[in-house]
Amino acid sequence: MSQALYRKWRPARFDDVIGQEHVTRTLQNSVAADRLGHAYLFCGPRGTGKTTSARLLAKAVNCLHEDLAERPCNECTVCQSIGNGRFLDLIEIDAASNTGVDDIRELRDKINFSPTEGRFKVYIIDEVHMLSTAAFNALLKTLEEPPPHVKFVLATTEEHKVPVTIKSRCQQFNFRLLNQEEIMQRLSWLADKEAFTIEPEALQMIARQGAGSLRDAESLLDQLVVGKDDVITAERTQMVLGTASNESVGKLTDAWLNRDGAGGLALIHEALASGTDPRQFCRQMVTYLRELLLLQAAGEALPLEATPEQRQEMAAQAQRAPRQGLIEAIKRFNEAALIAAGSWQPQLPLEMAFIELLPETSLPAVAATGVPATTTSKSKAKPASQPAKKKAEPVETAVPPIPEPPPPEVEAEPQSEPAKPAAAKAAKATAKPLAVREVQAVWADLVAQAGQKIKNLPALLNMGKPLAAEGRTLVIGFDYPLFKDKFDNLAGAAPLVGDILTELLGQDTAVRGVVTSEYTVPVQPDDFRALAEELGGTVSEE
Length: 542
What we know:
Layout: H1 5-8, H2 21-33, E1 39-43, H3 50-62, H4 77-83, E2 90-94, H5 101-110, E3 121-126, H6 133-144, E4 150-156, H7 164-167, E5 171-174, H8 180-194, E6 197-198, H9 200-210, H10 214-224, E7 231-232, H11 234-241, H12 246-257, H13 261-273, H14 278-298, H15 308-320, H16 323-338, H17 348-357, H18 365-368, H19 377-381, H20 409-416, H21 422-429, H22 436-453, H23 457-462, E8 464-470, E9 473-478, H24 481-489, H25 493-505, E10 510-515, H26 525-535
């Protein structure tokens, strides 16, 4: 029966444990000097060798080799029995599923029995922080003064949850995360043992994805291996792991620094279409931007796991990026990476993180002077905006100033109405209520024209949809309050969308944004009149 790589090649000696020399050397010296403690506490992240070291310690204290310095020998019956999982005096307890005080009382009752095969009974309690308070209290006395034939090894990934009273009764060892080079060396060794080939770039991807956990990296490698003499390519690794290429990460950073919203979003969508996982892309951005921040702070003295060309490119980006901007970008992408998967739009957090880092783009200067640059048809419909050269006439009120959100056009009509011709007044009086389906028919044109004026606006409009109509005011619904606030605060966005709709539909139209889940469509008498007209009937005022 086949085994997972991390189980098949689990270290059999202390010297085989990677990256934890400060722990294994101390344990070896204790075994060689025959000065072993009665209780140990192993703390550290997952996949760093805590349980492996605990089993090696159990093997060493029961090994039959005459030379203490050679224990464990992996040749005696005890070592082989432990390696095969048949040693009765090694008891492993999962505290995550045995959390109660009754479980500890049962352990306390059995602990007095002498070992069956070896010199010591070794209890390994994994994830010990999961024990209840009562269970910890029941363990205290036994842990402080266990029988001479008993050794305890407690392992935890959350040291802060272990009571101080437990820590004070144990020898504590802290395991560290492995660096990328150490993981790559171990994976190369596994590839040689299993007789398959792995490209250097693929090896680097797997090691980086492991994020300091050797077991995670070995499990990812196991996922990629097909059989002996297999060749693991960078392309296959990227596809299986859902990672973006280093080039994509660097280019998205360039798009942010260049304030290129369209190019950045296109790059994101291209990467996702090729199979990149959005959350993984966010994690890669966090790692890359963190390296830029550290490079900016430490300069050339910072050791980076990158080629000379990549390092040169990163150094140039670090010089261009503002420090506070880098910190903010790291926070944004980190928050996006932590959002739980399963959304009906999984790319949304990634897109939001990128869009929020872009500066708000104002309307072009020609639009801010009082003559909107959408088309000339609107200026014909509203002659009041033509005499812009006369200093006495405040024509700027036709298009509200950018810094402050303008009032809807329907409220501003009385100011400009005296300058409108009679035909415009008649058209306004006979204006039909806005229908959502009218807007849906021109929505694509609206988004395209909006992008010509405000670069970030198309992406924001695509996060919403025409939800309802209130007279001649279009209500745009956004699924998240963040997008609604972004739309409201984007200078000139609402007036611009209203102007474009006015041109496309031929009648004055205003716009406002709402959160879809918080909006209730009001029932207006005009709704019944419009419905009656469509059906060929009439509705009385009553």
